[in-house]
Amino acid sequence: MKPRVEVLEESEVREIYEASLEILENVGVVIFHEKALKMLEEHGATVNYETKIARFPQNLVKDSLKKTPSSISFYDTKGKNVYKLEGDEVHYTPGAAAVKILDSETLDARSPKVDDLVKLVKLTDMLKNIHFQSTALVPSDVPNPLVDRYRVYILLKYSRKPIVTGTFTFDGTRDIINLFAAAAEGMDIRKKPVGTLVCCPTSPLKWSELQLQSLIECCKHNVPVIVVPAPALGLTAPGAMAATLAQHTAEVLSGVVIAQLVKPASPVIFGGSANVADLRYGTTLLGSMETAMLFTSLAQIAKYLNLPVHAFAGVVDSKVVDFQAGQESGVGLLMGALAGVNLMHGPGMVELESCQSLEKLVLDNEICGMALRFKRGFEVNKETLALDIISEVGAGGEYIKNFKALKFLRKNVDKTYYLPSDVVSRETRMEWKAKGAKNAFEKAKEHVKKLLEEYEGPVLSSEALGKMKAILKAAAERNSVSLPSQE
């Protein structure tokens, strides 16, 4: 049994894709990048240089899809093949670019510092169900012109897991790629990528110069990109799910085309952050059931197009780590796994994609483990039906006293069970009370402390660290700012 979730019929997937082709051909995309406009025009697009709108012929889109890899392998900085984004393989990474962190003592949100990011990176390194690192915090004590690449430096210094990141500056992408190469210590990151950058079109149907420049720079160096639109149903996309999906798909495909024009076979991931709005409050929701329906639908569309797929899942609208946070994370992370989303971006996040919590990251790690267990399913065959054991124990017998049954249980226990850490309560009430009757947040807080104390971390060579610091120093000098003194 391999359980899965599908929202759309295959005919509906095809209809949405065909609608996206019509949008690209007839409506077009605003592109604030002269070189990209010229490339598109040279390859058959209709370009209006006054409005900056390019209209994409359908054959150009289809040809670009044929050139785009259906599988992307990511490596750690030692060159180990860590994870493949393909098929229904599922991986998790913390949520992105939070401007706040939930303080575990005051339970209020505050501005994060570099030390908070260091703790988050170390914690992520210790969590087995969180597979990629992410630049999940924006430290307020780093000068704005440096913060994009300084975050990457911290991730590379304290973890070897592959990285999901992005840039805020025109010179940031090149520095980030150079940081990847320095930490890889001689490994060819063009052949063995250690990270991916998120490049975001602006809904509806628009690319900024900054985001396109980042995409183009990545493609030149064979660094995988995740094209992530974030259309909000009713606000920056039409007020129907089908229309929002069609627009979202068109926005992704515009990035796919440009990537393939820069360099054929550039690795591109079909990203997803389509969402709905609560019009009572003017908030865009990442934890709602409707948003989960959107990203599971996008997974179907991406698989129809034979592209690796990403989605924001596990991000919640709750402001604290409470029942609502658990409910929304559980639904999103499980639905994404059953839809075969290759990379889910969101564990640890609260407050509408603006705040990160170390405690929630620990709890989400358990949800991810449970979701992966559910996705794995179980085998039904002659051995697993165990009719011989059932016959031997007999009606009214006791399996716990039968040697053959116990041996069978031992053999299958790892396949059958996902055993969570002690942040999940499975003991009796008496035992729970004897341990202090702590709730999940209290236990997660203790677990964070324990894991940070146990962290040993990677050891980069002095040469690699020197190269990375030189990249940061040069960036600081170019931008006339000072490097942070603390790490």
Describe this structure in words.
Helix 1 (10-27) packs across helix 8 and helix 7 (209-220) packs across helix 8. The chain has helices spanning 10-27, 34-42, 58-67, 114-126, 147-158, 172-184, 209-220, 241-262, 289-304, 323-339, 358-376, 382-385, 387-393, 403-416, 429-434, 440-454, 462-478; strands at 29-31, 46-48, 53-55, 72-75, 81-85, 91-93, 100-102, 109-110, 133-134, 163-165, 195-199, 206-207, 225-227, 232-233, 268-270, 275-278, 283-285, 310-312, 343-345, 349-350, 355-356. Helix content is 46%, strand content 13%. It is globular. It folds into 3 domains: 10-59, no CATH class; 66-376, Trimethylamine methyltransferase-like (TIM Barrel, Alpha-Beta Barrel), CATH 3.20.20; 382-416, no CATH class.
In short:
The chain has 487 residues and is α/β, with parallel strands linked by helices.
